[in-house]
């Protein structure tokens, strides 16, 4: 199609992406964080997510040593909350250890359990990290986690982050959808109510708000569209609606992207808006060169990483989302990103393999499958033997 | 990534809990971060100690005045700790505490952490417990004033919740009008206007009034996306939902165009208008206008979206050929 023109710029004139500086920058965050990040104590899992998935997009997972990989996986599983039969359905991952005390006292430990809750954003990022590192998720009980997701859904279809103490809005609708999709299980989750909540949050300008009649926002528009895709409901949007949403999204590009009309651009929206457009097959309608130029204007050339604005301090969040934004425009040296789950395509392929394995197991086909492989193998052998004298496709 | 503990740690004489007589009965509980933790935060000693005592109190299930004060200190160090906020609420319920004090405390906390989800959630729960929204409009107005450009998403969300829950719509249109006068580009305020007007009901009179309001704002600044989006949003509320449902808007936009204005928002509006006509009436003249304007957008007025405008033209062509094909088949 004629509108699909590639932005032509001589590659040698382009400002380079400092791959190895970004990799080193992200790697540092996996070890020790400065005291000034104490207010991020509850979301440590998200920092692991930005760092690990960022290294993955940089094709640099090999920089994570086998020991560090094991430590990340063990630490992540250490945040798993598994409720007992008679307890509230609070399963999932915690993003921190603030509610895990070092004590042998059974009574204290028991009392503390009431305040240990899975958190949807931490559960999503924890599972994404495990998948990205090639873990097979065998140390978690999928049913228990999805019960935890179902337990935090509200009558209006929205989700809270945790069984107690959390607001409910589109961010957690998205997280719920990622978890159910990644665990290939939606038991007890009301997809229809979820759809209704999402559609009630579509605004008059055809962006989605965080909650009902709030202002349209790039981040929540991504959350809404990704949740629709992951729950298999994207096709329920009619063509006119899709075209109007695309318009709202495309209009967010100034050079980089803004999150709301008349707001300044910010590196992270190269992901949020870019991914939303990818979901609607409209990303190629944007200006790649200007997008790239803006993201690179926020690159820290000294210590690596990306910031929201030029000359600002980089952080793992903007670094990861900046890299994803660059991956969408096909930046060399970066691996492809699956937009709605926000993980690499390689990680997504691994996830699909896990799904196949689970599906085979759950339908009791393990035994049959082995038989099938055997019989396929023997018939293949038979076929090889006969090909010399028989046509490959028999005439009808 | 602020550091709320720095100043007070350096400038006040903070007595560690381990040296306080009234806390002598409590054994602090360190955090269990596992044998080989990753993303370890180098907590300052004060942070570490406060949370060690916080864990000890939660593990004992103690809901007392001193526990309440401890949560205040813990939340000052990390206002994002949603579990401590929940524990604080559990203490407040247990002690049957005066929630008016809690609102005063929160006013201060929100003043310092206006972009933190947990503080606003706490505020909402407390207001629900009290069933008293008396201070919410003032609180959110202050948060919006302090924001610099009155776009703080949390403050707007809380304000909408309070208005919706406690039916506080009465003076909201005046408030919104003031904000739009101060900054016609404040999209949050335009969104709030839509929220209020929708509640009041999009009657034919209201629609006419709101269209006039948006057009007046556009006359002042033509290249402003917010009132254009509002204008289209209101037109969609009419019975037909068509952009040509109000001749005064059609005349207005054509008038701007004929006077030489080429704001991308004006052109986008006209493209949509002609596109609707082309599709409804299979009107070739309108389609040609769409193609010409898309071309102008792509080459001159909105070059960053050139691929998009080429797509819009191509898309219309294919829609028109689809809708004309069945007729040919019938003939």
From TrEMBL, chain A:
It catalyses: geranylgeranyl diphosphate + L-cysteinyl-[protein] = S-geranylgeranyl-L-cysteinyl-[protein] + diphosphate. It is an enzyme of class 2 (transferase). InterPro entries: GGTase_I_beta, PGGT1B-like, Prenyltrans, Terpenoid_cyclase/PrenylTrfase. Residues 19-343 form the Prenyltransferase alpha-alpha toroid domain. GO terms for molecular function: CAAX-protein geranylgeranyltransferase activity; metal ion binding. It comes from the Eukaryota. Its cofactor is Zn(2+); Mg(2+). Its EC number is 2.5.1.59. Gene3D superfamilies: 1.50.10.20. One of its GO terms (cellular component) is CAAX-protein geranylgeranyltransferase complex. Keywords: Magnesium, Metal-binding, Prenyltransferase, Repeat, Transferase, Zinc. Heterodimer of FNTA and PGGT1B. PGGT1B mediates interaction with substrate peptides. Belongs to the protein prenyltransferase subunit beta family. This is Geranylgeranyl transferase type-1 subunit beta. It comes from Drosophila virilis.
UniProtKB/TrEMBL annotation, chain B:
This is Protein farnesyltransferase/geranylgeranyltransferase type-1 subunit alpha. The gene is Dvir\GJ17219. Pfam families: PPTA (PF01239). Keywords: Magnesium, Prenyltransferase, Repeat, Transferase. It is an enzyme of class 2 (transferase). It comes from the Eukaryota. GO terms for cellular component: CAAX-protein geranylgeranyltransferase complex; protein farnesyltransferase complex. The keyword Transferase applies. One of its GO terms (molecular function) is CAAX-protein geranylgeranyltransferase activity. SUPFAM superfamilies: Protein prenylyltransferase. Its cofactor is Mg(2+). Transmembrane segments: none annotated. The keyword Magnesium applies. Belongs to the protein prenyltransferase subunit alpha family. PROSITE patterns: PFTA. Its EC number is 2.5.1.58, 2.5.1.59.
